[in-house]
TrEMBL record:
It catalyses: 5-phospho-alpha-D-ribose 1-diphosphate + nicotinate + ATP + H2O = nicotinate beta-D-ribonucleotide + ADP + phosphate + diphosphate. One of its GO terms (cellular component) is cytosol. Keywords: Glycosyltransferase, Ligase, Phosphoprotein, Pyridine nucleotide biosynthesis, Transferase. Pathway: Cofactor biosynthesis; NAD(+) biosynthesis; nicotinate D-ribonucleotide from nicotinate: step 1/1. GO terms for molecular function: glycosyltransferase activity; nicotinate phosphoribosyltransferase activity. Pfam families: NAPRTase, NAPRTase_N. This is Nicotinate phosphoribosyltransferase. It comes from Comamonas aquatica DA1877. Catalyzes the synthesis of beta-nicotinate D-ribonucleotide from nicotinate and 5-phospho-D-ribose 1-phosphate at the expense of ATP. InterPro entries: N/Namide_PRibTrfase, NAPRTase_N, Nic_PRibTrfase, Nic_PRibTrfase-Fam, Nicotinate_pribotase-like_C. Residues 8-128 form the Nicotinate phosphoribosyltransferase N-terminal domain.
Length: 401
């Protein structure tokens, strides 16, 4: 059975970013590149033939009628975008897979951004599932079920715990690093059945459709990064991206991602105008407690009541960390927690830390300068240095204490 059964088997924010780019910058050319950030149990290059076969299948898929109808029922998805998807098919010529000299995988997608940006989540799901098929043991799923039930029991203790100003709300953000599609379905359906008071939805559009729960997501770094190449003054790329998002969605999908060039630089652009228009902010790097305090202080400085806004945490969370953040911040602001790997790949095996990121757009480099050392991504040191200069961001490798 193919790993990707449907083109809906991807994260919601792929569709929301896709629509925004199609409407505003359909001519953008882009390059996406796969990377594995941790050591692997065996060389990923051994998966090349299987990865290629799965990509061949992916490129044969089209959106089914009922899938298009489902997307069309989401009030922020426009009818012309659904018409585009009705004709859409991934092009095999736009993506290639090779072995690296070190025995790793090199996967690159090049082409019009509206034709290649969708590869990312599918590629990561494919590599993950192929990798873990070789590592799974007879008791792997049993261990996964034991750990899942422990999480559910931990959630259920909240029913008799203290009542804070804002409830604990958990979502599945684990498609890209899941153990398998079948396991993600089991995890999400189990949480939906046994922990509905706290479990609020999934980033997977296919699972949301199948299980009748909410699809969740807004934007990722690639959307913000793209604006570094779109002809606006580099210093203004964040404001331009946020303004286009507001005009596209006009009140829907109002969670802004803060760490494309760091929280400090983001807040300098996130003025009263944007702070009122967006519902809240998403954390994806750096100390989450410090980040949350910065966000609340920023809202208060703008004389916005933090209780009317939401912070979404999604950086490497497990349930213990999410609950600690909830207890800290729930008296002050609305909260959401997106857990990925620790929901869909917590079976006793060492997860892969893999990404597939935008590295160039319109022939020039783009970059993310993360608040977490090691997550900064750029293949052009000159451009990275220039971006740091424009936003007055110190290089951690040259900063001394």
């Amino acid at each position: 059975m193919p790993i990707v059964p449907s083109l809906l088997d991807t994260d919601l924010y792929k569709f929301t970013m896709w629509q925004a780019m199609l409407h505003r910058h359909p001519q953008t050319q882009a390059e996406y590149r796969f990377a594995c950030r941790n050591a692997t149990a065996y060389p990923l290059a051994e998966l090349i033939d299987d990865v290629n076969a799965e990509l061949d299948h992916l490129c044969s898929l089209r959106f089914a009628k009922d899938e298009l109808e489902y997307l069309g029922q989401l009030r922020y998805i426009k009818s012309d975008f659904v018409d585009f998807l009705r004709l859409f098919q991934f092009q095999r010529d736009f993506i290639r897979v090779q072995a690296t000299p070190e025995g790793g995988l090199s996967i690159e997608a090049h082409g019009p951004q509206v034709h290649v940006m969708g590869f990312e989540i599918h590629v990561l799901a494919i590599v993950n599932e192929l990798y873990f098929r070789r590592l799974a043991q007879p008791d792997t799923l049993a261990e996964g079920r034991r750990r899942l039930q422990a999480k559910i029991a931990q959630l259920q203790t909240l029913a008799s715990g203290p009542v804070l100003a804002h409830p604990f709300e958990l979502s599945d953000f684990g498609l890209r690093r899941r153990f398998s599609a079948a396991w993600q379905h089991e995890v999400v359906s189990t949480l939906t059945a046994q922990a509905a008071q706290w479990f609020k939805g999934t980033s997977s559009v296919l699972l949301a459709k199948q299980l009748g729960i909410a699809p969740l997501g807004t934007m990722a770094h690639e959307y913000m990064q793209s604006y570094q190449s779109l002809g606006v003054r580099l210093r203004d790329f964040q404001k331009s991206a946020l303004e286009d998002w507001v005009q596209e969605y006009r009140g829907d999908l109002g969670i802004a991602l803060t760490d494309t060039v760091g929280m400090r630089a983001f807040l300098a652009d996130f003025d009263l105008y944007f702070a009122k228009l967006f519902d809240g902010l998403r954390h994806d790097s750096g100390d989450p407690f410090a980040w949350g305090e910065q966000a609340i202080a920023h809202y208060r400085e703008l004389r916005i009541n933090p209780h009317t806004k939401r912070l979404v945490f999604s950086d490497g969370l497990n349930l213990d960390k999410a609950l600690a953040l909830w207890r800290h911040f729930a008296p002050h602001i609305q909260l959401g927690f997106g857990i990925g790997t620790n929901l869909t790949n917590d079976l006793g095996l060492q997860p892969l830390n893999i990404v597939m990121k935008l590295v160039r757009a319109n022939g020039q480099p783009v970059a993310k300068i993360s608040d977490t050392p090691g997550k900064t991504l750029c293949d052009d040191e000159t451009y990275l240095a220039y971006l740091r200069q424009v936003f007055d961001i110190a290089d951690p490798e040259t900063t001394t204490t």
